[in-house]
Amino acid sequence: MRIESPIKRIERLKKASRPSRDRDERVPPGQFVTDRFPVLHHGPVPHIDLETWSFRVFGRVAAPLTLDWPRFRSLPETTLTRDIHCVTRWSKLDTTWSGALWRDFLRELEIEPLEDATHVMFHCVGGYATNVALADLNADDAAMFAWAYEGKPLTPEHGWPLRLVIPTLYFWKSAKWVNGVEFMSGDRPGFWETYGYHMRGDPWREERFGV
Ligand SMILES: Nc1nc2c(c(=O)[nH]1)N[C@H]1C(S)=C(S)[C@@H](COP(=O)(O)O)O[C@H]1N2
Ligand SMILES: [Mo]
Q: Which residue has the least CA distance to atom 7 on ligand 1?
């Protein structure tokens, strides 16, 4: 598969301003609905071994920690159905995910962000990263670390064994193959944000590109 350079991709997306074909009030401006489930990422699908997989919680937290797969997978499971919106203009309605809610993750593991923590950086196997404000994560009652899609374990290309699903933000914030969360005092751009994607990425405000 040919990998498009991030710079080319941004240029192409900026030119492709298509009007919304779907006026449904569930669909944010400039999006169209698809029944397919496109696979989108930069770089190859990583090979991951659950035996050696680990998840790091670090940065501005009272007690940094490292979790192995059995510990992560033992977090309480929630199943939710939400719409997802990709900045490349497709939206998919009623996608069902199972995993650990952000708020259960914090509570169960007794993760206490320090007072100056305002944002997190999610880190992934392979080096992808994306930044999210703590306020946005805490306000999204469906934000989760997902391990299953439509009742089945994630497929490798959709993020197995673990990905984020943050339905209130554009889907590039829903990091696949996630293996770490870094609490930060202040904001810092992740992968796509460095190339010009918006720092926040609210689809209802069309926060596609930064200034
Ligand atoms: N690790 C990683 N996660 C990623 C990406 C990536 O390049 N690497 N791309 C993001 C983008 S731009 C999108 S639109 C969604 C696509 O998820 P999907 O392939 O399951 O549809 O994954 C997001 N998560
Ligand atoms: Mo994307």
A: 41
Give yes or no for residue 40 CB within 6 A of ligand 1. Answer: yes
Structure tokens that stand for 147 in this block: 């391990």
- Name the band, by pLDDT with cuts 50, 70 and 90, for residue 16: low
Task: Of 203, 205, 204, 210, give the one whose Cα is nearest residue 174.
Answer: 203
The identity of residue 72, as a single letter, is: F
Q: Which two tokens stand for residue 13?
A: 């997306």
Superfamily of domain 6-38+48-205, CATH level 4: Oxidoreductase, molybdopterin-binding domain (3.90.420.10)
d(CA 169, CA 166): 6
For 69-124, what is each residue's pLDDT tens digit? 999 999 999 999 999 999 999 999 999 999 999 999 999 999 999 999 999 999 99
**87 close to 208: Cβ distance less than 8 angstroms:** yes
CA-CA distance, 106 to 167, in Å (whole number)?
A: 18
The pLDDT tens digits of the residues spanning 105-120 come to 999 999 999 999 999 9
Q: In the chain, where are the structural domains located?
A: 6-38+48-205
Q: Which of 134, 148, 200 has its CA nearest to residue 172?
A: 200
Alpha-carbon distance 128 to 133, whole Å?
17
Ligand 1 contacts CB of residue 86 (under 6 A) = yes
